[in-house]
Amino acid sequence: MGAQLTEPVRIGIVGAGNRGRNHAARYDLIPGAEIVAVADVDEAKARALADECGAESYASHREMLDGADLDAANVCVHATLHADIAVDALEGGTHVFCEKPMAGDYADARRMADAADRTGNRLAVQNQLLYTKETRAAKALAEAGELGDVYHGIAARSPGFSFAGEGDPETTRLGARRRGTPYVDGYGSPPFVRQESAGGGVVLDLGSYTVGQLLYLMGSPDVPTVERVRGETFRTVPERFDAGGATGDDGEASEYARRIEESGYDVEDVSAAFVTFEDGSVLSVRTSWSRYLDDESSAVVGTKGGVRLDPFEYFSTVADVEMRASADLEEYLFRQQFLDGERGRVAYESGLWADPLYHWVGSLLGEDDALPTDSPPTADLALESMVVADGIYRSAELGREVTREEIVESARGSDTPE
């Protein structure tokens, strides 16, 4: 299958839950995208979403791949299921867009990347932080040499987002995640906090966003290669509520305690790590669902300047004067989108410019020239992010720093090659 398609891009969604419904609503806004199939083991959910989209429903992804005429498959199921579905789709001649994290562990992520390389079909992984105006502006400064040689990144952004109901694509930004644990604190479902379905906790959930973003900003032109990782993970939420016996004023177990116990909560909710890359640069990683501290900003620092991403600030020395500069990112975004041509203008006016699905559809339509010239290699970034995540888990388990070779060889119990 060639990379350039004739409109529309015919898409099959695997997973009719919250993420699947959210992606479907977003595709409905994107020119050139058409949902033609929905698959879910919960056939009622598949039928309901398919009916809304004017599509066919299927009881499994294999039935969908066999029965539907697809250009692309969109994987919106639990992380530990991503690899099998993505590999089946890629080997079946279909391009794949996958929700984050890329997979439940590095071994599965590697299988997905290898399948894409082997078949020549495109693989992309969700990460909306790669397309924000802050990321685009920071990348522009780095590419222009205004940061010098980048030697330190900080992946620490922790605000939460509340998704609208019924898969609506609108989100509301929340504050620092002092109390933002999936399901336990009121949103999401139990599989988010179970190792079996999620593959891990906050390291995979939020870390897949921030680590991928910083790998993109620190890489020029290639994605930085992890050399070694030292990390620790913490499980603080169950201790806070004493799931075995916490009670409210009425003597009954608290709702928080019930949710912890009923969900089978067994993942980390806080992590801190330090990553060293082969080129000598380093990355500090802090992820948290629930930590008693103000919000932190991610940042990238070089020998000539540094950028804090949220709020966006540029630090440097000009004419021997120490500078701490803000930026008009709205004006920058407006100009860049209109320079991208008609599709860029439409994207700006409709608010699609930051949606990874918009860029994904554009790339499949062969409109790469109308997309940002520094369009991120999302699958490569997600794969190296999985090396970082597995490294954090492995390091925490062993209580010491681990090398890339140890991470790849262990691959969470797999013999998957590098």
From TrEMBL:
SUPFAM superfamilies: Glyceraldehyde-3-phosphate dehydrogenase-like, C-terminal domain (SSF55347), NAD(P)-binding Rossmann-fold domains (SSF51735)
Keyword Oxidoreductase: yes
GO molecular function: oxidoreductase activity
Key words of the record: Oxidoreductase
Cross-referenced InterPro entries: Gfo/Idh/MocA-like_OxRdtase_N, Gfo/Idh/MocA_oxidrdct_glycsds, GFO_IDH_MocA-like_dom, NAD(P)-bd_dom_sf
Domain Gfo/Idh/MocA-like oxidoreductase N-terminal: residue ranges: 9-126
Presence of the UniProt keyword Hydrolase in the record: no
Annotated stretches, region: Disordered: 162-181
GFO/IDH/MocA-like oxidoreductase domain location: 136-307
Gene3D superfamilies: Dihydrodipicolinate Reductase, domain 2 (3.30.360.10), NAD(P)-binding Rossmann-like Domain (3.40.50.720)
Domain of life the protein comes from: Archaea
PANTHER family: BCDNA.GH03377 (PTHR43818:SF11)
Protein name: Gfo/Idh/MocA family protein
